[in-house]
Predict the 3D structure of the following.
Amino acid sequence: MWDYSDKVKEHFFQPRNAGVLEGANGVGDVGSISCGDALRLMLKVEPETDIILDAHFQTFGCGSAIASSSALTEMIKGKTLDEALKVSNQDIADYLDGLPPEKMHCSVMGREALQAAVANYRGEEWSDDHEEGALICKCFAIDAVMIEDTIRANNLSSVQDVTNYTKAGGGCSSCHEGIEEILVKVMSERGESFKPGTPSQEEAKPAGMTNLQRIRKIEAVLESVRPQLKRDGGDIELLDVDGKTIYVSMTGACAGCQMEALTLQGIQQKLMEELKEFIKIVPTKAGALSRASCHV
Amino acid sequence: MTGIYFDNNATTRVDPAVVEAMLPYFTEQFGNPSSMHSFGNKVGLAIKKARMQVQELLGAEHDSEIIFTSCGTESDSTAILSALKAQPERKEIITTTVEHPAILTLCAWLEKDGYKVHYLKVDGKGRLDLDEYKKLLGDQTAVVSVMWANNETGTFFPVVEMAELANAAGAMFHTDAVQAVGKVPLNLKDTKIDMLSVSGHKLHAPKGVGVLYLKRGVRFRPLLRGGHQERGRRAGTENTTSIVGLGKAAEMAMEAMAFENTEVARLRDKLEAGILAKVPRSFVTGNPDDRLPNTSNIAFEFIEGEAILLLLNKFGIAASSGSACTSGSLEPSHVMRAMGIPYTAAHGTVRFSLSRYSTEDEVDRVIAVVPEIIAQLRKLSPYWDGDGPAAEPEKAFAPTYA
């Protein structure tokens, strides 16, 4: 049984805005019947203002697909089209208090349905630009197609390379066999053979940043999430950066909040995207760090 | 309200009498059966008894043909790898497209090592083409592995006949019988089946114990080497409590065999007929004329299985589905695909598997709830329009691949 959040269950058992929307003027049909998830999103848009007056969905899919569809309709109602298009799949997942890694594609589908429906309303042609493969890394929800494309585009030749570029394999490491198999396949296409244990071609330099630049970048990311935390009565403080480990302290309402782990996960994701490297964010109490570092 | 457990092909509850038989072997009878002293001796005798109980259930000629393992998967891997190791000159395997992953994943891995694996296709009812099989058998065939009954649909395969053919071609024959043992009377001594896998937890014994039946005289190469346990054919200290439990469960399965094939089958038939009568656009998958007595696999068109299971679960009903989502894979059940069931139905397959503990009242309650659940989900489906499927459903909804 999947570990669904209460919010996912609630939106599945009592889906909002389900069924046909009469008078819809923007419809997006996306999904894959072979994968078993497909969604029709129907929008009623006010032409003068571009505001989404109503949104309905019909979904052929699992619990989290139905919940993601339901959440999406709730999130975009009342927004203008341009505002709505800013809703990312991570926003949909966050709205539902997270989705299991195997199910993140349900939120991606929601976002794509939105793009398709808006394109339909605007009389444009929408075409899908990503292909989904078998899920390889469950820690970071990275699929085979993404890994394969990244290896090809960047001439990668080690599991470490793949982790540095895609994050895949950077968690529990049980998918390393799967990553090696993809490496063997892609490398043989370019006439090379995969050698386990060879050091990565290039030590994933954090995009040529100096430590100072890096720390400034980290501060900037934390600054960008701060207003959101403050709204909930909390805050975050950068304590130290030790290689790929970033120590932070959660204060105010954030400290000990049940959502702390989820919040940190989101921040870690943002940091990795900004720094373009695999990092780990570790919550620590201010002052505890000097003691902790004695053991290193 | 207590839950209704109709997922007995996944696992079964351990019979209380089995638990009772096991308990002393955790505490007072804790000895190692290999030990010389009396602590070990009594445990050794208990394992001997369990071996004979399993021998009886399988209709094996000798009790030494029973090798205790840790699970069905271990038995499968041991059998196939042994056959390859013992006949290094033969490089081919024949199996089916609808085997359990315990076989298919192993075969896919062996292909990387240069073995040629032939996958027998099935027809719309999940039946094999024996002519295709006969053509593939040859002096390169090391082993044939065909399940006795399919775990998803319950459909039987003619393994006794197929074993004769393999034997005539000089190939070994293995069958994964984890779903069949305990539900189908077996008489292995009168067959040419060389190896057969059993899983304890499918027949009301605990998880973590299995059996590999190995016909006397069949060349064998152990997977686990070490101590002399199981006559050196499966090293490692015996899981004594579970082996004792499996013995007891085997004995009880013998007693319940007739009941499984009459009463359990009757309840299954009632459940199936009741659901089909009330739910439009639903059908039975597999071969209803030749299948396990406890299994019914029903496809509900235009909706997805995980959603069905979640709603069933809300009513305390446990079943399983062949949808991609329930396993986190990208394709619906390989068994449904092999039978050519369209995607719009394959994702909506639900397997109900009963046991001898299932009751008439439970069957009635499931019949009462299922139509409602299906109707509820179809209301959300883009393929559905009011009381029936949209006209030309595949055209009414043709999503952009995303």
Confidence is low (pLDDT under 50) at residues 200-205, 289-296 of chain A. The first strand of chain A starts at residue 26 and ends at 32. The CA atoms of residues 101 and 141 of chain A lie 5 Å apart.
